[in-house]
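Subject: mismatched residue count in predicted assembly?

I count 482 residues in my input, but I want to confirm that the predicted structure covers every chain. Input:
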Amino acid sequence: MSIQRPKTITAQVTEILGQRIRDGVYPANSRIPSESELAEDLQVSRTTVRNALAKFAADGLLIRKQGDGTYVSSQASGIDQRYGGQWDFSRVIEGNGFKPSIQMLDRQQRTATADEAEQLNIEAGQPLWTVDRLFYADDFPAIYVTNILPIAYFHNKQAIPDGTLHIHDLLDSVCGQTVGYATTDIEAVQWSDIPRVFKQDRRERPMLKLTEVFYNRDNLPLALGISFYDDARLRLRLIRS
Amino acid sequence: MSIQRPKTITAQVTEILGQRIRDGVYPANSRIPSESELAEDLQVSRTTVRNALAKFAADGLLIRKQGDGTYVSSQASGIDQRYGGQWDFSRVIEGNGFKPSIQMLDRQQRTATADEAEQLNIEAGQPLWTVDRLFYADDFPAIYVTNILPIAYFHNKQAIPDGTLHIHDLLDSVCGQTVGYATTDIEAVQWSDIPRVFKQDRRERPMLKLTEVFYNRDNLPLALGISFYDDARLRLRLIRS
DNA sequence: TAGTGGTCTAGACCACGAG
DNA sequence: TCGTGGTCTAGACCACTAA
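Triage response: the counts match. Full output below for your records.
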């Protein structure tokens, strides 16, 4: 694989280095070539290499040591869910060693409650779409997600949200909006507040509830995501440096 | 305030810009001066300004718009716990609008269980210190933290860990080790597994349990942190871009 | 079209760590 | 001491947005 100019160079370098780490060209705990060597090898500036390396270091995949070199973290093989990029539940499930699959449960139009209206910065009673999905880890229900999208932002008010898309892509396709950032509130919820799907094979354990608000770059809340996360089956792990 | 060379320039620029945001020199939702203007103003290169701005953008404090400018996020006033830096519970409590205080509950020497030994990559039965602390939000117990430190890494085996320090500073002072990165696992725990201190003023609600592992830059686990977090009183919020 | 942020370069000097 | 990563510069060109 070689560098091609059309796409952003840093992205290409990131991809190449990511492949080398995943493929074991740079094995765990080994020292990778120096920044200067990589820059020479890939025919880009050292700054560009550094920017690519910085992303991996921030995710904990690479450990950088001044005066020594850059090492592949032993965490690299874990493929834990990294924090910083999109929170992709399918990847989270994969990272925990399960085969992910998605089931669309429900999709309906209704009006916003007072609570939802406040979080979305709209008026109560405004129409919105809700999309309910269930993520399976192998054959077990693992994450139940409800996404809530105000119809006011839809380009085509008649459009029906695609239940197979990631929320970012869904907002892009139906509203033409790009998610700039998102907030996630994490709570523990007790048995009585848990969706029925989870009540079959679990003892009366609490679950995690994630409440996400997706904003565009103008600081406007675009959508909500309310997820019930089976922390008994899936580890919810954050890494920070 | 002016730039001084001895400390890292980016850090100084970051500090200055942070103050201006906090102090309202750059009010929420307003556009801040362009990168070039800031570079000229502070007598540093545009690259340096960009690095400083990038940190705020990653934390969601600033919103950058190509072709337009850089805006202060309305989230800025919330002072929510940002993700990426240290997870400082006192700051979390402040950010939720309470006055934080810390009580040292217990400090003892014992040997590692099999479970602890595995997480710390040591052998079971090795001696370690445990430090139990309780963080109050106003007058209510809000976070219960147990830190576990293997004595093997202590410079002075007789040293007694200081119960007032942040875990990062504690490790620095007692082991001479710097924390390179940390992982946090988040779970929901049921009533029966919750520390007694919380059982007085709560209904039988579950809580959040955070299990942190602190690593040095050589990928060696230095310490554990096990926290019970009252999500009914304190919002646990992550922001990502 | 002018000005913004986004990307990239080539070079410099420094702080640090291993040998 | 030598090579590493860490920091910083001055400049370039591009993509995008608002006026």
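Residues 34-36, 50, 53, 64-70 of chain A lie near DNA strand D (CB under 10 Å from a C1'). Marking this ticket as 'not a bug'.
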